[in-house]
């Protein structure tokens, strides 16, 4: 895949979080783009250290129909800044699905880190697994963020059809149980009481 297409794929800032915890999550999306890869939802399943993302589209498609024209990506932020640090790129070879993991570097060209397990469980689905052990996650981090995106070119998508899930922001996934918030102690404010001392009377004005 050309680097120009990869550069187009890396769009969108990681902003408003959607909270998620557990082994199964689904983020829905509306019919908002043309082409075969208009996504209806993205499901995250599996163990926390071996999550798998399933793209579900509105239309059916085959490996041959999206060959060299359709791509799906999962962008993952593990460092906690305003950009993705890794992405999984899913494509068709014409006869099989293929997925690659890339390190999304800020000042250098993206580095390919290896292949990922990918399969097509249905006419409208493709699933990719991203082992989190392959990613660098700081020890202080208890969660990571992700968003998904498809890209399609072709007769219906002369200018490239993008579909982002969610449309804005990102999904926050916890790596371990989030800490419970520490309650803030409430210090009662003393209520002022009326003074028991008599108020001073004005001094009489002497007559001339």
Strand content: 35-45%
Distance between the termini: 109 Å
The fold-level CATH name is Immunoglobulin-like
Describe the largest sheet.
Answer: 8 strands, mixed
| Radius of gyration based on Cα positions | 28 Å
Please count the helical segments: 1
Count of folded domains: 1
Structural class based on helices, strands and sheet pairing: mainly beta
- How many DSSP-defined strands? 13
User: What CATH first level would be assigned?
Assistant: Mainly Beta
Uncertain spans: 1-19
H/E series: HEEEEEEEEEEEEE
The CATH architecture can be named as Sandwich
Structural write-up:
The protein is mainly beta. The protein has one domain (3-174): Sandwich (Immunoglobulin-like), CATH 2.60.40. Helix content is 3%, strand content 38%. The chain has 1 helix and 13 strands. It has one helix at residues 3-9, and strands at 17-20, 24-28, 39-45, 52-57, 70-77, 86-92, 97-103, 111-116, 118-122, 125-129, 143-152, 161-165, 170-174. The strands form 2 sheets. Strands 1, 5, 6, 7, 8, 11, 12 and 13 form an 8-stranded mixed beta sheet that branches. Strand 3 (39-45) and strand 4 form a beta hairpin. The termini are far apart. Mean pLDDT is 84; it is low at 1-19.
Keywords:
single chain; 208 residues; mainly beta; Immunoglobulin-like; eight-stranded mixed beta sheet; five-stranded antiparallel beta sheet; 3% helix; elongated; disordered N terminus
Summed up, what is this model?
This protein has one helix at 3-9; strands at 17-20, 24-28, 39-45, 52-57, 70-77, 86-92, 97-103, 111-116, 118-122, 125-129, 143-152, 161-165, 170-174. It has 208 residues and is mainly beta.
């Amino acid at each position: 895949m050309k680097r120009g297409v990869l550069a187009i794929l890396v769009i969108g800032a990681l902003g408003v979080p959607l909270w998620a915890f557990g082994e199964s999550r689904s983020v829905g999306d509306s019919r908002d783009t043309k082409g075969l890869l208009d996504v209806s939802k993205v499901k995250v399943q599996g163990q926390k250290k071996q999550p798998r993302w399933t793209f579900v589209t509105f239309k059916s498609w085959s490996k041959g129909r999206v060959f060299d024209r359709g791509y799906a990506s999962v962008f993952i932020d593990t460092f906690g800044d305003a950009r993705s640090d890794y992405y999984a790129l899913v494509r068709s070879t014409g006869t099989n699905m293929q997925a690659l993991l890339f390190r999304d570097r800020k000042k250098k060209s993206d580095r390919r880190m290896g292949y990922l397990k990918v399969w097509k469980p249905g006419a409208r689905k493709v699933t990719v697994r991203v082992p989190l052990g392959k990613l660098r996650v700081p020890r202080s981090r208890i969660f990571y963020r992700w968003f998904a995106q498809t890209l399609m070119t072709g007769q219906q998508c002369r200018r490239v059809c993008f579909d982002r899930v969610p449309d804005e922001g990102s999904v926050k996934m916890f790596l371990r149980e989030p800490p419970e918030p520490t309650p803030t102690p409430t210090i009662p404010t003393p209520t002022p009481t009326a003074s028991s001392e008599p108020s001073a009377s004005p001094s009489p004005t002497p007559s001339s």
